Amino acid sequence: MNKQKLHDYWHTGGIHTLSIAVPGTVQAATQAAQDCISVSIRTNKNGEIESFVTINPNKYHGDIFKFSEFEKTMEVILNECGITEYRFIRTDLRMDNYAPRQYELYSKLNRYLLMAVMIAYGIKNKYFSGDLLTLKQLTQVIKGRDFEIENYDRAAKSRRTENHAELAQYRLEIRTMPSGWRKIYAADNDKSSNMELLKADLLGEWFQRFDAALSNLDKVQEAYNEILEKEWDAAKDAMPVQFGSVTEFVRRYQGVIFTRKQLIDLYKRIDDSGADPVQKANNYKKRYGIEFFSKADIQAAVKEIKRSITHFCER
Question: Using alpha carbons only, what angle is made at residue 289 by residues 288 and 294, rounded to the nearest 5 degrees?
Fold first, then answer.
């Protein structure tokens, strides 16, 4: 990966939204608090009324980039809503970048990272989506039972929703889901405060998830090559013609070819011309400039994500 491009892979972290369960009903006493929350009321399995409250603390006084400010703002919002007891159901931390085209520039790197996390945790639900007219990819996401990670084009979403206040161009969002929070509370056994558990989750469990990705990079390459080999076998003799050559096929799917080693292996699988796959990979790189990543590149990306989370949590 280009060193300057890797250097420019940076994020500003902060809590985006969170959902909490509150005994009884909730009513905001101020308009400022009302603007930050949405409430749904349910009856739990014991027949007791509970409120499920989704809060965006950034709507109270603006974007929050320090955990200490997040705690203070949450305390004010909870007080103005009369909430004295709650538990987390879901927490979303956003990591944003404000430079143009960041999603497009880093979607391949982030796909590699998300796929490695997916394989590490056996996640089955994964997808990407795009714009039918422009054909541009807009989001890629993995959804596990305990957590989710989504990388999306924040600028495109802002244009679509006519959100003129949002400045972020790119977002990498990590979410601890209800199943994850149930496990956190069960393991803690009421020893820690909600905010202590949240910080521990961000600096503990999430760090472990991204670290786990680093030992699964080869498996990502192998998984994609197996898929690409099947795709080539199905498409090479298809009518109407889909690919005029192996090179056309590689160009179509170079967004999921992450290393020189992977490209060499792919040529071994699909190219029957008798040409040296190593030389073919070298020639392709020279002519088409395919982006490759070393393990050190991904380690640096994980280090930056951790830095962003730490920078938020420790201020």
Answer: 140
Where is pLDDT greater, at 306 or 243? Answer: 306
Angstrom distance (rounded) from CA 22 to CA 151: 30
Under the banding of pLDDT at 50, 70 and 90, the label for residue 26 is: very high
pTM for the whole structure = 0.93
Query: What does the pLDDT read at residue 163?
Result: 87
Query: Would the pLDDT of 242 be above 90?
Result: no
